[in-house]
Amino acid sequence: MRSRQGTRNLLGKRWKGTSRKWWRTTTPLFHRSENERYTMIFATGLGVPEAPVLMPDGGWLVVEMAPDRGCVTRVGSGGEIQEVLARTGRPNGLAVDAGGNIWIAESKEPSLLKLSADGVVETFLTTCNGDPFLFPNDLAFGPDGALFLTDSGILFDDFAPGGAVRPDWNDVAVDGRVYRIDVESKEITHVDAGIRFTNGVAIGCDGMLYANETLTGNIFRYSLDGDHVGPRELFGNVLIPADDGSIRGPDGMKFAANGDLYVTVFGQGDVTVLETDGQVVNRIPTEGSFPTNLAFGPAGSQKIYVTEDEVGTIEVFEVGVDGAALYDGTPLG
């Protein structure tokens, strides 16, 4: 792996432990990246952030995965850090339903959590038919109201003992899964297994389910027909060929309204854009090397907000298109 200041945590992301000074600012900063694009730094001082979610009032939710944080945090519409909503251990993914409940993929004590609008945290699920969760990672609601959960397929401490990715990361046994959850009945079913570190998940404009595979760079998709999920299909790949031995791969992803898929690629330091045929059409460099997830901004803004772990920020990029509407757990039709 490339040498960088600080301690690497899971998947090449770094943190400086409890000695880190988490500084805050409410003033957006601007930087010029390598391709002469201006990058707005929307929020700073976040401890290994991921899973940005735009709220109806224009504010944001993010998770902070740093060991001294381990929380769901609210960020104001101007980028100011407002409050910690819950400390759960190591929250990794978020989804918000129509009732204001916050669903959390918790990776330290592997579980799906439900944070109610009045602040009560419920351990909703920890297993699928007796098979324990290993590394709940990301979440997305589908058009029928079901919640899809990715599980990376290895315990966090086994993949990154002491917070550093093990040197044999590409050879270790990983059994990534995708689950479908009926949040009304708590019925949970396996959608897929045998994926080499399942990570981001999203519903496409074509109504299909998309999930990615970090250790290969692959993006998969599955047809949806009610509660039936079709077989895995290869959609595309986001990696630039390299042989430096560093871990790189897709993380969180979201669809634009035109059907393009925007994928954060940590270790590669970009947001890779794939057209509807799976071909890469753009790569947007990020300020840090470890972008983890993204969300589109308010309607009409045509911006993406990207969480970045190396520098603990939310970065903003103008992309010329709005995001596709997200499902909120309310069944269509």
Give the SSE layout.
Layout: E1 7-8, E2 14-15, E3 29-32, E4 38-43, E5 49-54, E6 60-64, E7 71-75, E8 81-87, E9 91-96, E10 102-106, E11 111-115, E12 121-125, E13 127-128, E14 131-132, E15 136-141, E16 147-151, H1 156-159, E17 176-181, E18 188-195, E19 198-203, E20 209-213, E21 218-222, E22 224-225, E23 228-229, E24 233-237, E25 249-255, E26 261-266, E27 270-274, E28 280-285, E29 291-296, E30 303-308, E31 313-318
Antiparallel strand pairs: 1-2, 3-4, 4-31, 5-6, 6-7, 7-8, 9-10, 10-11, 11-12, 13-14, 15-16, 16-17, 17-18, 19-20, 20-21, 21-24, 22-23, 25-26, 26-27, 27-28, 29-30, 30-31
Structural class of the secondary structure composition? mainly beta
Give the strand order of the largest sheet, numbering strands 1, 2, ... along the chain: 3-4-31-30-29
**Which topology does CATH recognise?**
Neuraminidase
Average of the residue pLDDT scores:
90
Number of domains: 1
Per the principal axes of the C-alpha atoms, what is the gross shape?
globular
Tally of alpha and pi helices: 1
Task: Give an overview in words.
The chain has 333 residues and is an all-beta fold. The chain has one domain (7-318): TolB, C-terminal domain (Neuraminidase, 6 Propeller). It has one helix at 156-159; strands at residues 7-8, 14-15, 29-32, 38-43, 49-54, 60-64, 71-75, 81-87, 91-96, 102-106, 111-115, 121-125, 127-128, 131-132, 136-141, 147-151, 176-181, 188-195, 198-203, 209-213, 218-222, 224-225, 228-229, 233-237, 249-255, 261-266, 270-274, 280-285, 291-296, 303-308, 313-318. It has a five-stranded antiparallel sheet, with no helix packed on it. A hairpin with a 5-residue loop joins β25 (249-255) and β26 (261-266). The longest helix is centred in the middle third of the chain and has 4 residues, at 156-159. The chain is globular, with a radius of gyration of 18 Å.
